[in-house]
Design a protein that fits this description.
By secondary structure, this protein is an alpha+beta fold. It is built from 8 helices and 25 strands. A hairpin with an 8-residue loop joins strand 6 (200-208) and strand 7 (217-223).
Length: 522
């Protein structure tokens, strides 16, 4: 009975001890602390001179689109890795301090000080070295504790921008990113590059938490330079799926036609035969195929383990039009490819289209909007367009130079005229007030000065009028560079009697880019 009581007491004390150790080893965190993101200046490669400023414009746009007030639940793995990194950095700092003390003690042997003083200094340095070694040993224990520590669940942290997003973070090339971010209380840093590839902008961004062993996430986007905001916004959506630790979703594909190209946030999906893994969030889906209407749609993936992305593109409705320009026989290009030599018939999609006409090196662009015109379904509509007679590019460039020279002449003449006007006014006032000799020769001199003023003033006015005339001419010529409207030839509406094959008229169902929960996915 007595033995049983002692056993129960021993078990109770053991359980109490382990509970105490468990509670002691819990990671106490500031639940109100924020998860701070900084963005650094991007590198540039091969950008045109007019876009060199994108090295700061692009990261500043990241700051704008990331200021959303979102929250993040910090995963246990990140907490653990941060704690281990902090303990390891502390140990490394102590090792460096001990190395400096050892170096100072070694240098003491070569000094020419009194032996008694040297012995005292050596004793003091040895004591400090022993203290550092003890601290290093304790730091090593701290690392082992952090490796086995239990972390408590924390509330979602507010995702905030470093310095309220008002400035970019500057990271030294040789600096330790983990230590640098720790000093500024930064949880993650976004850095990257902007490159030019065949005239298109390619942005690559990295999300780096500065923690050894933690994955550095890479994101990319491409597009025209003018579409930089859309590209950055799309990349920020991708970044937030990682930051917010959204769940992974398996996405299957059901695509029609089979040769269609599907893009998710601008990235081409190369293989539809197997599913891909995405994270919950918003995505921009795009699909295109030859002879089909291109479609885009914004989808949100959430609350499902799997989706089937159904894409059913609508067949383009086509129509035949003819060109028979009596005064010219240019080559016709459609979608940057040679189509016909006019006169001739071309079959195009029944939608807004851009054409290029070329004859003897002179180019004319035309736009056709079928919805603004009524076409006969039984005949081929004859179309007309007014072609340029001169090379528009050369004409605009010549007129631009004339305009600049006219403006330069006005800039030279205007200040001279104003200075001369002021001088003439002073001379006339001085002559009338008796400050100048009241003689005929003086009056003749002032009259000549007034005549010169009138001539120069008239010249300045003429230069001003000339500048505005040249500006109007420049705008007129620049307007010729815009696509001209292609209109039906109402005088001769029918190009040729051609019966349209009814089989070419397609009545597909509306285009659908849908997402459905995959019922077979468990």
């Amino acid at each position: 009975m007595r033995f049983s009581f002692k056993l129960k007491k021993l078990i109770f004390l053991s359980v109490f001890f382990f509970i105490g150790c468990f509670l002691f080893s819990q990671k106490n965190e500031d639940e109100n602390s924020d998860w701070t993101i900084a963005v650094s200046e991007f590198k540039t490669e091969g950008l045109p001179s007019s876009y060199q400023s994108y090295k700061t414009i692009v990261p500043e746009m990241f700051l704008i689109y990331m200021d959303t007030g979102a929250k993040r639940i910090v995963p246990f793995e990140e907490k653990k890795m941060r704690a281990i990194m902090e303990a390891s950095n502390k140990k490394l700092r102590l090792i460096k301090e001990r190395a400096k003390l050892i170096k100072d003690r070694d240098e003491l042997f070569l000094s020419v000080e009194d032996k008694k003083i040297k012995d005292e200094k050596e004793k003091k340095l040895t004591e400090e070295i022993l203290k550092k070694e003890k601290s290093i040993y304790e730091a090593d224990i701290d690392i082992k504790i952090e490796e086995t520590r239990f972390f408590t669940s924390s509330h979602p942290k507010n995702i905030n921008l470093w310095k309220y997003g008002e400035s970019l973070y500057k990271l030294s090339e040789n600096a330790d990113i983990g230590e640098s971010l720790k000093k500024e209380n930064i949880s993650a840093l976004i850095y990257g590059s902007v490159k030019d590839i065949s005239g298109y902008m390619v942005i690559t961004a990295y999300l780096d938490m500065g923690i050894p062993g933690m994955k550095i996430h890479e994101f990319s986007g491409a597009g025209r330079y003018d579409d930089v905001e859309k590209v950055v916004e799309m990349m920020v959506r991708q970044i937030y799926t990682i930051i917010q630790n959204t769940k992974e979703v398996k996405v299957f594909f059901d695509v029609n036609p089979k040769n269609a190209k599907v893009y998710i946030d601008g990235e081409l999906i190369r293989d539809f035969s197997k599913p891909i893994m995405l994270r919950e969030g918003f995505y921009q889906i795009g699909a295109s195929a030859q002879d089909y209407v291109e479609e885009t749609k914004k989808l949100e993936l959430k609350n499902k383990a799997a989706y089937t992305l159904k894409i059913n593109l609508k067949k383009e409705e086509s129509m035949a039009i003819g060109f028979n320009l009596k005064s010219a026989s240019p080559n016709l290009f459609f979608k940057s490819q040679y189509s016909i030599r006019i006169p001739g018939i071309i079959t195009i999609p029944k939608m807004k289209s851009i054409f290029e006409f070329e004859e003897n090196g002179v180019h004319t662009f035309g736009v056709l909007e079928p919805k603004n015109n009524t076409f006969s379904p039984q005949n081929v509509q004859n179309m007309i367009i007014k072609l340029n007679k001169k090379n528009v590019k050369d004409s605009i460039e010549t007129q631009r130079k004339i305009l600049y020279w006219s403006l330069g002449a006005l800039y030279i003449s205007l200040p001279i005229t104003m200075i001369l006007n002021s001088k003439v006014d002073d001379q006339v006032y001085a002559f009338k007030s008796g400050k100048l000799p009241y003689t005929q020769s003086e009056a003749d001199r002032i009259n000549k000065l007034v005549l010169t003023q009138n001539i120069l003033q008239g010249l300045t006015i003429a230069l001003g009028i000339n500048y505005f005339v040249q500006l109007i001419i420049y705008l007129v010529k620049a307007d010729r560079a815009l696509p001209r409207k292609i209109k039906p030839n109402y005088a001769e509406p029918v190009y040729q009697d051609v019966n349209i094959d009814k089989d070419t008229v397609v009545n597909d169902k509306d285009t659908a880019i849908k997402d459905e929960e995959n019922k077979n996915e468990k």
